[in-house]
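Journal club prep — side note

Before the paper discussion, L.F. wants everyone to see what a predicted structure for a comparable chain looks like in token form. Sequence:
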Amino acid sequence: MRRALRWLGRGAAALLLLLAAAGAGGWLWLRTSLPQLDGSIAVPGLTAPVAIARDAHGIPYIRAGSERDALFALGFVHAQDRLAQMELMRRLGTGRLSELAGESTLGLDRTMRMLGIGRLAQGDLDSLPPPVRAALDAYTAGVNGFLATRRGALPPEFWLLWHAPEPWTPADSLLWGRLMALRLTDNWGTELLRGRLTERLPPERIAALWPEDPPGAPVSIEAADMASRADDAPPGQAWPRPLHAELPLPEGMSPGADGSNAWAVSGRLTASGKPILANDPHLGHSLPNHWYLARIDAPGFTLAGATAPGVPFLILGHNGRLAWGLTTTHGDASDLFLERVAEGRPGHYQAPGGPLPFEVRDETIALRWGADQPLTVRATRHGPVVSDLQPGAAAVPPGHVLALAHTGLSAGDINAAALHAAGHAQDLAQFRAALRLLRAPQQNVLAADSSGTTAIDMPALIPIRRSGQGLQPAEGWSGAQDWTGFVPFPARPQAADPARGWIANANNRLVTDSYPFFIARNWPEPYRAMRIAEALAAAGGLRPEDAARLQLDATSLGARAALDALLRAEPRNDRAARAVERLRAWDLRMDRNRPEPLIYAAWMREAMRTVYADELGPIFPDWWSDRPLLLRQTVAQDPSWCDDVTTPEPETCPERLGLALEAALDRLERDHGPDPSRWRWGDAHQARFDHMLFGRIPYLRDLLRLRIASDGGNFTVNRGGFAIGREEAPFEQIHGPGFRA
């Protein structure tokens, strides 16, 4: 027995040693997937040697003898560092995720096949001029050069999926722009919401939920600064007849635009006498980052700033002569049309001139661990039939379907040519000529050049409607609200060297009411822009470090507006009274180390629910968000919203806001303990970074997730976006700057 136990112990020890050796071997094998940073690599396809150096942060500096070799090298380093990200982007855009992930991504694949993103990108190649095709070909050769010469393991994502990537193609690089056009055009989600609200509220009540900017709110392009003016305004804008439709979309594909800050300051306000451009685009957090920093130098060719993995063009940055940055316009560049199926002719739909046949194509989605999935895609003259995504689930009237018109779904997109030309521009005149090629998404482009000129342009497509403003789904069969064309480029919003010496946009209103074309009914609340305008209006001797400091500013003018309403509450006890006194003394800084931002955010969350949920009913969770301008105007101008329509007795705003404070403090005590002096905004407001693939896998998700306690909020220049409508972790930062320059 003793000998048997001894041998058993030896066997167990040997097994442990074997497992440890296997684990160590696996770890060492996976480490071979890391990029080679030293020495030389022989890669076929280069015309001359290229030097790639990396700084302490891993940012590559590429020096090449030609532009062609420089773009080849950019493709090579993108593939070295972000191959899995590029592969998943490619498969998302072409609707081929389910070949790797099985049924869990089938909804996303159906969406992409229905929208036709992969087909559109492939067709875009034929619209591009030869120099742009050459750039795409050089980059593609660099990506494939890495695939052909790599040694060791593929990145862990490929090992987990048991998959090796296919060769890269030029069309794959065009998918990124198409996906961003979808992501950065959010108004069709609002159209659905407005349409649903028509069943519960009259038009004037719905309009009140999206209030106009307060008096004095900044406008990025004042009427006097417009560089050109349209000759004719579009037809009069009439309110459409209310129509109700509801469309559930797969997770991750609901429209939701993102934000950004950008400003350009004239040299007469800077210490150097040269202009300063600042930009920090805001997107949902991800791991790895959306952006890839790089610098490229070749004879007569320099690019430095933010690239996108999979794309051979600079998106944000400078070319040694001029710099540019972007913010999202939040313009109305998509519309939903309710189409009536022709009676007795199910393959046709009604149009103004009579029935038309649906455009139909058949798709097949390969499914890992399952049978291939057939998909029939239909389209009308307005666009793809999005209600076919989940037949029977969409709340569309019987005998009708819902079609999507979207500037990002038009054929022959030449955004790649615009980015290529922008990178080669010698001055702002050439740069602005390049912008004429942009189509979607709508972006405000701020720029400055070494001659001292500053400018802002909104160059993308702006639909002109026969009537209406695309505020909710429209009757497709009448043609009354059809798009009749697009605003001519010279008439699109643009300005240069304004008299005040600076230009700024933080997704706020772009133009004054005197602008003759419709861009948007409502704009994001203007509080970030107000804070930037305060700083720039007082500027003198501005330095780059001053701009960087402003990008990190955490003062919330949105909180100031909301507190004008909240502090009218009637505290119901001493606990509430102490919380109110804290907020009266608060400096409005969303400081991660202070309790006041947490008390404010929790109160604001409950106030929105207490004041508006009774009127909105089951629609409220989809509408629920942080709206200080609305709350302030409600309490000051229309307190009828505060009355609870489900009770016979009338209630006042001070009463209801007092109840909201009680609910907020109850939750804070539950989550953070009974002592408010120990509460910290950063305990609840943490930027969360989930891996794009491993973030969906239990245990591995928690092991690799990164969290950082952060300053800021929805309305601070240092954007720390959170979604108060989430029941779990409503203050978690899910949105913010991924790049600052």
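L.F.'s comment for the group: The chain has a mean pLDDT of 92. Keep this in mind when we get to the figures.
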